[in-house]
Specification:
- This protein is mostly helical and about 375 residues long.
- It folds into two domains: about 5-40 and about 170-369, no CATH class; about 50-150, abc type-2 transporter like domain (abc type-2 transporter like fold, 3-Layer(aba) Sandwich), CATH 3.40.1710.
- The protein is about 65% helix and about 5% strand.
- The chain is built from 15 helices and four strands.
- Strands 2-1-3-4 form a four-stranded mixed sheet, with helices on both faces.
- Strand 1 (about 50-55), helix 3 and strand 2 form a beta-alpha-beta unit.
- Helix 7 packs across helix 14 (about 320-335) and helix 11 (about 255-280) packs across helix 12 (about 280-300).
- The radius of gyration is 28 Å and the shape is elongated.
């Protein structure tokens, strides 16, 4: 293996990338678009739930109860209706997701300790939001009714809850680190999936076959420019996450670069293998998306918790490299863990990349022969 031949292939591929607007857009604009779309448009935080109120009691107690819901920040009162039947319209039309109905005897029963009651109706079309909303409402209601009734019960067990790593429970703090993995998977695999296929379509593959360049030199030379682009995307995405979305980066930048390099090696090798097998840019692009983006998005734990998946999908997720990369990124960003905490996962990713790189060498060698 000679460095001069690798350098020539790197220079050739770099010129092709620089002259290809599609590759430049995919390498630099796509990460930016994904970050803004996922960072701003997607949020798992449940707050300011649109709420309609039917207060038939119209007393200081009922008004105080409604005020407690508003002050919590989880509920936003959009309308006070006079008739109970009007609640249906607001829930059916989607103008409200929660309804609070307070009967006429709310205050009297609260004062006389006869069990003051009121009704909370939640739109269950989104079961996750409905469950969280009911939990918020139950906590607020319990505190409010105890205060109205003048009942103070000393708890038998005093629970002091603390949330580590993400104390504010902001969804963007775990979405952004996972998004870096998705971006790397899709950009790395898509870009390299076009390399060999492009040579076949342009008729330049025969020139490479007749040249003294060896198979490993050709693959390494084609991977290196995209490896540099991938690392730039990692640093760019991490920088936007920290400074724009205010996601904490508690770990070291070196650990981030090291694990990202290992993951990039794997996805770039996957892309080059797809490019060798497909021989068509359109087909290679489609296969790369199916093999990289969809598993990284659905089976990595980025958006959906793996323990909540069916057992078969949980087992399948073990062969998805992004699963391990997402976990390492969250550890680096939120926990500040060093590489020593996930050496096994890093070794698995390195083994995955080495296997794909070896397969790409074998397949391309057969093609060139």
């Amino acid at each position: 293996m000679r460095f001069q031949r690798i350098k020539a292939i790197v220079r050739k591929e770099s010129i092709q990338v620089a002259r290809d607007p599609f590759s430049l857009a995919m390498g630099f604009l796509m990460p930016l678009m994904l970050l803004f779309i996922f960072g701003y448009a997607i949020s798992l935080d449940v707050d300011e739930l649109t709420t309609v109120v039917n207060d038939l009691d119209k007393t200081s107690a009922s008004r105080e109860l409604v005020k407690q819901f508003t002050a919590s920040g989880y509920f936003k009162i959009v309308k006070q209706v006079d008739r109970y039947q009007d609640i249906d319209y607001y829930l059916d039309s989607g103008r409200a997701r929660v309804a609070i109905a307070i009967p006429v005897d709310f205050l009297s029963k609260a004062v006389t300790h006869k069990g003051a009651r009121f009704q909370i109706i939640v739109d269950g079309s989104d079961s996750n939001t409905a469950t969280i909303a009911l939990g918020y409402a139950s906590g607020i209601a319990e505190q409010a009714i105890r205060r109205f009734a003048g009942v103070s019960v000393a708890p038998v067990i005093d629970v002091r809850a603390r949330v580590w790593y993400n104390p504010e429970l902001k969804s963007k703090n775990f979405i952004i680190p996972g998004l870096v993995a998705v971006i790397m998977a899709v950009v790395g695999a898509l870009l390299t999936s076009l390399t060999i296929a492009r040579e076949w379509e342009r008729g330049t593959m025969e020139q490479l076959i007749s040249s003294p360049v060896k198979v490993p030199e050709l693959i390494i030379g084609k991977l290196l420019p995209y490896f540099v682009i991938g690392l730039i995307d990692v640093l760019f995405s991490a920088g936007l996450g920290v400074f724009l979305f205010e996601v904490p980066l508690k770990g070291s930048l070196i650990a981030l670069v090291v694990v990202s390099s290992i993951f990039l090696f794997g996805v770039l090798s996957l892309g080059i293998l797809v490019s060798i097998l497909a021989k068509s840019q359109v087909l290679a692009c489609q296969v790369a998306i199916i093999a990289s983006y969809l598993p990284a998005f659905l089976l990595s734990g980025f958006m959906f918790a793996i323990p909540n998946m069916p057992k078969a999908l949980q087992i399948l997720s073990y062969v998805v490299p992004a699963r391990y990369f997402v976990g390492m990124l969250k550890d680096i960003f939120l926990k500040g863990n060093s590489i020593s905490f996930f050496l096994f996962d890093a070794a698995l990713l390195l083994g995955f990349g080495t296997l794909l790189f070896a397969l790409a060498n074998v397949k391309l060698k057969k093609v060139m022969e």
